[in-house]
Amino acid sequence: MVNDVIREYEAHLKKATEALRHNLATIRTGRASAGLVEHLPVEAYGAPMPLNQLASIGVPEARLITIQPYDASMIKAIEKAIQNSDIGINPTNDGRIIRLAIPQLTEERRKDLVKVVRHRVEDVKVSVRNQRRDAMDQLKELEAEKLISEDELKRGQERVQQLTDKCIAELDQIGKEKEADVLAV
């Protein structure tokens, strides 16, 4: 029973870590990255769809993203979605391909982006701590219902805390790497 709680908790931690990686991929750095736009919602065929389902996205050089729609009639909708997003880049198109030239980030903008990175990392840490609290509560319930012994409760709580500490350290590392990426000129 303790192992079930711990397995479930580990699954939550993995999801939280992946969610942070995915979330940070959308933050702009000085280099072009397909992750910047691939999940951008585009109004297509009457419903919002992620850009990567409507076009092929390429990064031919360090400061350029190319987007080639599978259906040429979608070019205006894709352009509109990019303009309405918060990435702050104006698209140009030649009727077949949309190009996004990634401008150099100013020092002030880099510092703002670092704050965004730290905020997102902190949000995920709060989520992890809430999951830890829930796991601890589940273990205490099992002990209160006499389904596990006091020793098993202590071992389970120690294991949950170890997993939490490891996950928090990993989240901090992911955040530091993204900050370094944003600050790199």
Q: What does the model show?
A:
The protein has a 4-stranded antiparallel beta sheet, with helices on one face. By secondary structure, the protein is of the alpha+beta class. 57% of the residues lie in helices and 15% in strands. It is elongated, with a radius of gyration of 22 Å.
Helix content: 55-70%
Mean pLDDT: 89
CATH topology of the largest domain: Topoisomerase I, Chain A, domain 4
Proper CATH architecture of the largest domain: Orthogonal Bundle
Distance between the termini: 51 Å
- Order the strands across the largest sheet as they lie in space: 3-4-6-5
* Major sheet summary line: 4 strands, antiparallel
Compact overview of the structure:
Helices cover 57% and strands 15% of the residues.
Features:
185 residues, alpha+beta, Topoisomerase I, Chain A, domain 4, Gyrase A, domain 2, 2 domains, four-stranded antiparallel β-sheet, two-stranded antiparallel ribbon, 57% helix
Q: What is the topology?
A:
Blueprint: H1 2-25, E1 41-44, E2 47-50, E3 55-61, E4 64-69, H2 75-84, E5 92-93, E6 98-101, H3 107-144, H4 150-183
Antiparallel strand pairs: 1-2, 3-4, 4-6, 5-6
